[in-house]
Amino acid sequence: MVKGIKGVVFRQVDPTARESGLSATNRLVIFMILAAVAAAVIETEPTVSAGRETLFQALELSFGILFSVEYLLRLWVADLNPVFGAAKHPRLKFVTSPASIVDLLAIIPSFFAFADGATLMLRFVRFFRILRLARLGRFSRAWRDLGEALHSRREELFLAFSLAAFTLLIASSLLYWAESEAQPDKFGSIPRAFWWGIVTLTTVGYGDVYPVTALGKFFSALVSIAAIGTIALPTGILAAAMSDVMQRRREKPAD
């Protein structure tokens, strides 16, 4: 009987246990995640939350309790999940998995609901309530495909981001050399020049920091051209990886 109940719970709380779509419990959890994030966002608006502090605190605590129950149920049936069941200690592997760590980080702030929110640390802890959106990835095959794509191209992506970091360092160093005397407040050091480098390499271009010397403008033009490739490289790698994942999915039924 216990095994039967455990199987039913597994099919309800684990989205990978069913081939016919999400269970009613999965849909309820998705609704609660969206509602909890919406409440956390709305609460930051003083004109809405003023006079309703107790209501928002009660909602937050309720969400925390419900998410905790769901987490404990998934922990209980972790040995039925093939990903964790093959391990020597399935529940330990479940608890230490990245997705479960994100779940815990999203649940913990709920139990600070009635604490004083004046301190910076407590506001930072409550910020983690937004992490609940990341939990939606468990219920979406598309998110799992994205994770598979990132993992399959991790070395290429690491190289692309390393190249971007190297380009940022070189660009910031050049502008520091060219602009430090003309604009010591903005380019007086390489770390200060990082802001200009990040804005330029990402092609955002806020316009709050820019070179004024001829040499600085020349270097800035070169960096702007290099930025096109810096942004395109990881984008192309990820697009190719997603294409490969979707192709494998289409071919899988024919195997």
UniProtKB/TrEMBL annotation:
It is a multi-pass membrane protein. GO terms for molecular function: voltage-gated potassium channel activity. Its main location: membrane. The chain crosses the membrane at residues 24-42, 104-125, 157-178, 218-242. One of its GO terms (biological process) is action potential. Residues 26-248 form the Ion transport domain. InterPro entries: Ion_trans_dom (IPR005821), VG_K_chnl (IPR028325). It is found in: Membrane. It comes from the Bacteria. One of its GO terms (cellular component) is voltage-gated potassium channel complex. Keywords: Ion channel, Ion transport, Membrane, Potassium, Potassium channel, Potassium transport, Transmembrane, Transmembrane helix, Transport. This is Ion transporter. It comes from Sphingomonas xanthus.
